[in-house]
Design a protein that fits this description.
The complex is a heterodimer of chains A (261) and B (347). With 261 residues, chain A is mostly helical. Classes of the chains: A mainly alpha (261), B alpha+beta (347). At the A-B interface, helix 8 and helix 9 of A face strand 6 and helix 2 of B.
């Protein structure tokens, strides 16, 4: 009896979670196809917000800039983070523990504080605000995520495989490329997705470090909401969500997260 | 193929001395065992020969050339690991061919040599499988094929059979010996299994606490152990007499134990369980050492039986074919005897 009840409660619980997670997103996507600017019902299908979006160079520029920054961040953070993970896995050196512990605060410290600190720092060294500062800031934020994810994958790696490869005549580079790397690829893909998400979704750091007229998409969305809401924002958000969903599904399909390959 | 020679190698990890002035010769084409309890330094020695570790002092030669400054990947060794360490993302053929591809061997020759190696270990049909699709014994054969396909100068095996169950282990011992014989490669393996060491090797090195206690052919080490540790570690040994501390052997007031000539000042006398005979009455033959005692336990184990006999303060272990053990029951008073020539003198 109570078992059945618990099962039902569990299902209800799950449904509520999914509802609160996805209902707002679905409403937004729905409204991006509604002709009314003020969310008036009945629903009247229209693509006019998408048409307006296509002509809104400000939003499109910001989107392009965001994607470009995210791609650069992803590449740099993934390469550096993966290299750092392999080094932390393979070598014992002074201060290794300290270094590993120091990777976590950047994840835990509120972005507002990190952003303020970065702003002061970049003005201090004379770099000031602008896209280079934004990229450096994003990379710094994303690297710990990559290291944590790749290291988790490396923890399941059998180090004697590297020894076996060396005994067969492979130098350090060949060992990494042929033995270690294939094993951690799922971790690297997951880490890269994290890095992309950290950068692309980043509001606080970008808001502090980007110059006016040079803002990223989240910053632009925020400022335009303050000026007055238009369903164009719904349209661009719907596009972003659809693309990221598809990317996540493809990544999950090919990388088989955490599982045996 | 090459001989290996280890000269006065010392290796420390912080304050812990893993290898203490170890020397041993491994002549070309031989099959050698490094035997010792865990923590004795046998694996450290193997890893130093392989080049994963570098000696603090002393020197290692492979084929008459010092390899002290040569890293693993340049030493031309083949190594088999305890957990086999097969590359999980590669097929069996790719695993075996790894060392050949690293050496940039042409693809025709690579294919031919992979085929030969797999044939040698009798796995020719499994080249397309992945390691996780193979049984433990098959994986081990693959690991062996991968280690020898590059024609290394030395084959190093780290506890090669310890992950297999008993019956498979015996099969693999035979197999390993056959393959080693066929290709004639100098082979050094680490084991804590004394029987395995005795069965497989031409020469055994016994390590304890980082020191090489004794090395030599299995039969000679077994019959002439240099100390009590070796006597008791390599097979079982009944200590029948010990030095009383005044430089004299104390046979525990048992004059029927004959002290071999010149052994009066030895540290101990021992006898192997299989050298003992058991009887209900006192044996009358000349030249026997004998002790009187009580049969405490008799254990049947198929071909062989083990008897535990209490003689005064000493407990003796005897092993014999079950049919050679007379119909004695536990608790009976019996005699144990052995030919005096079988007495092992521990110097």
């Amino acid at each position: 009896m109570s078992g059945v009840l618990l099962t039902r409660l569990g299902k209800l619980w799950l449904l509520s979670i999914l509802f609160f997670l996805y209902a707002p997103i679905l409403v937004m996507a729905f409204m991006s196809f509604n002709a009314s600017q003020y969310y008036q019902l009945p629903f009247e299908f229209s693509l006019k917000w998408y048409e307006k979006l296509a002509l809104n160079t400000e939003i499109l520029d910001a989107a392009t800039r965001s994607i470009a920054i995210a791609i650069v961040t992803t590449v740099v953070a993934t390469v550096l983070g993966t290299a750092a993970s392999v080094a932390l896995f393979r070598f014992e050196f002074r201060g290794k523990r300290f270094l590993q512990v120091m990777l976590f605060p950047p994840i835990a410290i509120p972005w507002l504080i990190t952003g303020t600190a970065m702003l002061i720092f970049f003005f201090g060294i004379g770099l000031g605000r602008g896209t280079p500062s934004v990229i450096i800031g994003h990379v710094a934020l994303a690297i710990p995520y990559v290291i944590v994810v790749v290291s988790a994958r490396l923890a399941t790696f059998d180090a004697t495989l590297e020894e076996a490869a060396r005994s067969l005549g492979a130098n350090a580079w060949t060992v990494t490329r042929r033995v270690t790397f294939p094993w951690i690829v799922p971790g690297i893909i997951a880490g890269a997705l994290f890095a992309f998400a950290v950068s692309f979704d980043q509001f606080v750091i970008s808001y502090f470090l980007s110059e006016p007229g040079d803002s990223t998409l989240p910053v632009l969305i925020y400022t335009s909401i303050r000026k007055g809401f238009t369903p164009e924002i719904n349209a661009i958000s719907t596009i972003i969500i659809s693309v990221s969903m598809v990317v996540m599904l493809i990544a999950a399909r090919f990388s088989n997260f955490g599982g045996e390959r | 193929m090459a001989e290996v020679s280890v000269k006065n190698v010392t290796k420390k990890f912080g304050n812990f001395t893993a290898l203490d002035d170890v020397s041993m010769e491994f002549p070309d084409g031989g099959f050698f065992a490094l035997l010792g309890p865990s923590g004795s330094g046998k694996s450290t020695l193997l890893r130093t020969i392989a080049g994963f570790l570098f000696a603090d002092s002393g020197s290692i030669h492979i084929g008459n050339k010092s390899v002290d400054l040569i890293p693993v990947e340049k030493r031309e060794i083949g190594m088999m690991f305890q957990n086999y360490a097969l590359f999980p993302n590669m097929t069996i053929a790719d695993n075996v061919g790894f060392g050949l591809r690293v050496r940039k061997v042409s693809s025709d020759e690579e294919r031919r040599r992979i085929g030969e190696a797999l044939e040698l270990v009798q796995l020719s049909t499994l080249g397309d499988r992945k390691p996780h699709q193979l049984s433990g014994g098959q994986r081990q054969r693959v690991a062996l094929a991968r280690a020898i396909v590059t024609n290394p100068r030395v084959l190093l095996l780290d506890e090669p059979l310890s992950a297999l169950d008993k019956s498979l282990r015996v099969d693999m011992q035979v197999e390993l010996k056959r393959i080693q014989h066929e290709i004639g490669i100098t082979t050094i393996f680490v084991t804590h299994d004394q029987e395995e060491a005795l069965t497989l090797s031409d020469k055994i090195g016994i390590l304890r606490e980082g020191r090489m206690i004794q090395s030599g052919p299995p039969r000679s080490v077994y019959n002439n152990p240099v100390d009590r540790f070796t006597a008791e570690f390599l097979g079982d040994a009944n200590i029948v007499a010990e030095n009383d501390g005044n430089g004299r052997l104390n046979v525990s007031g048992n004059p029927s134990i004959k002290i071999p000539e010149g052994a009066e000042t030895a540290s101990a006398l021992a006898v192997r369980p299989e050298s003992l005979s058991i009887s209900a009455t006192e044996p009358e033959q000349e030249g026997l050492s004998k002790v009187h005692g009580r049969l405490v336990q008799r254990m049947f184990a198929g071909a062989m039986s083990t008897c535990i006999v209490q003689c005064g303060s000493h407990t003796y272990k005897m092993v014999a074919r079950d049919q050679d053990v007379p119909n004695l029951s536990e608790g009976e008073n019996i005699w144990l005897s052995w030919k005096s020539a079988q007495t092992i003198v521990i110097p």
